[in-house]
Structure formats: C-alpha cells, structure tokens
C-alpha cells in the first residue's frame, strides 16, 4: 500500500558539534555513512524515490550517494531551517502525487516497520499530515504533542514555549513526518520565518493544514531510540553500540556463537551461518559471508566481499581480506 512513496531526507547540515569538516551524514556507523541506514529503512518501508537535500560540502554527499540509482538531489545553499530545506524540493513534490516522508539523515536507528506504520497512518486516515511520535520520560528539549479532550492532535509545543504542565507531557515529536505531497506544497507556500531564528520550520506546516480544515494526525509508531539524532561524537558511539548490540542479538538468535559480544565487532551486512563460533577480539568488516561450523579467532580480522566455506578455521591473530 505504501509503494510509490517519495522520501525527502535532510542531509544539508554541518558537523559543528562533532568538530568535523566532514558533513554530518557521512560520518560512519559500523562501516557505512549514517545516512545509508535512513535510506535503507525508507526503501524497506515502500519508498521508491528519494530526494536528499544537500548543503554543507554538498559535493561530498552527492559523490557518496550518487551510486544509488533511486537518489536524486536538491540543493539548500543557505541554512534557513527544516521547512526551507523541504522548499528546495518543490519540483520533486510538484511531480509526485501521493505520500511523502520527511526524514533526518542523521537518524540511523530508524526502523522500516515504523516508517511503514507512518505511511499507513497517512493512507488510512487520508491525512494531509501525520506527525510521528513516541513516549519518553527523557523529553527535555523536545517538542511535546498536545491533544484535545478527544485525543486528537492539537499542536506541537516546543519546550521553550511550554508551560510547566506541558513540559510534563511524555509524547514527543520524533521529527519524522508523512504528508500528502500536494498538501505539503500548499503549506510550504504559507509558512513564515516569524521566530527568533528567522527560520522556516517544517513543524508549522501541520498547523497551516489543520487551519485549512484538513486532517492532521499524530501517530505513536516509533520507539524513542529511533528518534536519536547524531550531533556529537558521543552520540555517534551510542548509535554504533546500539547497532552492534542488535547485530549480535540477531546472529546469536540464528545459531551463531559470539563468545563475548562486547569484545567483538561484526558488520551488520555480514552473513554468518549457524554453529559458527566467533571468539573475542575478532573484527568482521563489510559484506562477509561465513559458512556453518567455522571457528574465527580470537584476535582475527575478516574483511571485504569474501566467502568462507563451511568448516573454515581462521587462526588467532590472522587477517583474511577479500576484494
């Protein structure tokens, strides 16, 4: 049902808090630029066309993503807010009739099931806009979702504008949205930079649409971890750790023995068959395929597009590299 959706992925930001010249979305998580996890999740949710909004060192982001046939680009030459970034996609929106996801390129923990849920919420309710939400006690600094007495979406209130009672609201805006493309185009024409930052906020679009009498929904389809954006090196380490833990859990559930997961690195793209044993301090990088009944390490490195046959023994302190 969600097939044919368009995704706009915001990827124009700098790495100011990371103290880096490299565009933020190109910082690697488990061997891949973090934005690629967002693209994968969008595709798996049913998106067939992706627009990456580039800005800071745009040529680097375009060079990295140009290998993906389904990715096109929009250029944001000035950083004037999230709404302004989406305005740069007017041509793509005008040619698309249907659902549009708007996502941040620095959220590598997004799950395809959650994005599919967001798209289905937009389709099922015929909404002009769906705001993806989640509950969390750690809501400091985040936009709260206000609902009316019937439980329907009323508005988003930012923390700086919230009353004490509103600050206690646990439901927060994740920054993930699903819009009807033509409704979004209409709203973008009417938002204004009437705020202290003189920026165009995407969060103003649902309010514009609601004032038109169009349905606007807040859908609680995300886990709080998915909203974790990467702004610092510490957060980069946090999401890397989360993806590693998920990778280890998946492999062990499938019959692979990882003797000490906390002392082992395994690329999420690796395919490892049951009854293989991965000993401590091993590093498995890239799209490695390892057959069943293998024994790897300890202290071994296996990397690249390489296939190890069933029963292979990789000795301690060895390195095996593919193309």
Polypeptide structure, described:
- The strands form six sheets. A seven-stranded mixed β-sheet has the order 5-4-1-6-10-7-11. Strands 12-15-18-21 form a four-stranded parallel β-sheet, with helices on one face. Strands 13-16-19-22 form a four-stranded parallel β-sheet.
- The protein is α/β, with parallel strands linked by helices.
- Helices cover 26% and strands 26% of the residues.
- Helix 1 crosses helix 5 (112-125).
- The relative contact order is 0.12.
- The protein has nine helices and 22 strands.
Show the helix and strand layout.
Layout: E1 5-11, E2 28-29, E3 32-33, H1 34-44, E4 47-54, H2 58-65, E5 71-75, H3 82-87, H4 90-94, E6 99-104, H5 112-125, E7 129-135, E8 144-147, E9 153-157, H6 164-167, E10 171-180, H7 181-188, H8 204-211, E11 216-219, H9 233-253, E12 257-258, E13 265-266, E14 271-272, E15 277-278, E16 283-285, E17 289-290, E18 295-296, E19 301-303, E20 307-308, E21 313-314, E22 319-321
Parallel strand pairs: 1-4, 1-6, 4-5, 7-11, 12-15, 13-16, 14-17, 15-18, 16-19, 17-20, 18-21, 19-22
Antiparallel strand pairs: 2-3, 6-10, 7-10, 8-9
Helix pairs in contact: 1-5, 7-8
Q: Can you give me a brief rundown of this structure?
A:
With 323 residues, the protein is of the alpha/beta class. It has helices spanning 34-44, 58-65, 82-87, 90-94, 112-125, 164-167, 181-188, 204-211, 233-253, and strands at residues 5-11, 28-29, 32-33, 47-54, 71-75, 99-104, 129-135, 144-147, 153-157, 171-180, 216-219, 257-258, 265-266, 271-272, 277-278, 283-285, 289-290, 295-296, 301-303, 307-308, 313-314, 319-321.
């Amino acid at each position: 049902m969600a097939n044919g959706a368009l995704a706009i992925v915001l990827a124009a930001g700098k790495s100011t808090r990371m103290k880096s010249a490299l565009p933020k979305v190109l910082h690697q998580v488990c061997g891949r630029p973090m934005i690629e996890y967002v693209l994968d999740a969008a595709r798996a949710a049913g998106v067939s066309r992706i627009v990456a909004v580039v800005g800071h060192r745009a040529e680097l982001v375009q060079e990295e993503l140009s290998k993906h046939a389904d990715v096109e680009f929009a250029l944001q030459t000035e950083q004037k807010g999230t709404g302004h970034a989406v305005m740069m996609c007017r041509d793509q929106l005008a040619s698309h009739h249907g659902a549009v996801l708007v996502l941040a390129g620095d959220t590598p923990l997004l799950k395809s099931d959650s994005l599919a849920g967001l798209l289905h919420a937009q389709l099922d309710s015929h909404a002009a806009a769906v705001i993806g939400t989640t509950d969390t006690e750690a809501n400091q600094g985040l936009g709260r979702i206000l609902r009316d007495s019937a439980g329907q979406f009323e508005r988003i209130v930012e923390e700086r504008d919230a009353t004490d009672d509103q600050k206690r609201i646990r439901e927060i805006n994740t920054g993930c949205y699903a819009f009807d493309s033509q409704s979004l185009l209409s709203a973008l024409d009417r938002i204004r930079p009437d705020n202290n930052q003189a920026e165009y906020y995407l969060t103003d679009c649902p309010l514009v649409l609601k004032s038109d009498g169009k349905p606007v929904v807040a859908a609680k389809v995300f886990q709080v971890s998915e909203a974790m954006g990467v702004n610092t090196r510490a957060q980069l380490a946090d999401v890397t750790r989360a993806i590693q833990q998920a990778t280890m859990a998946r492999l062990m559930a499938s019959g692979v023995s990882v003797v000490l997961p906390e002392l082992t690195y395994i690329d999420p793209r690796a395919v490892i068959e049951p009854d293989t044993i991965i000993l401590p301090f091993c590093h498995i990088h890239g799209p490695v395929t390892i057959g069943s009944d293998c024994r790897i390490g300890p202290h071994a490195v296996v990397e690249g597009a390489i296939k190890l046959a069933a029963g292979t023994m990789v000795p301690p302190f060895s390195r095996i590299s593919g193309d």
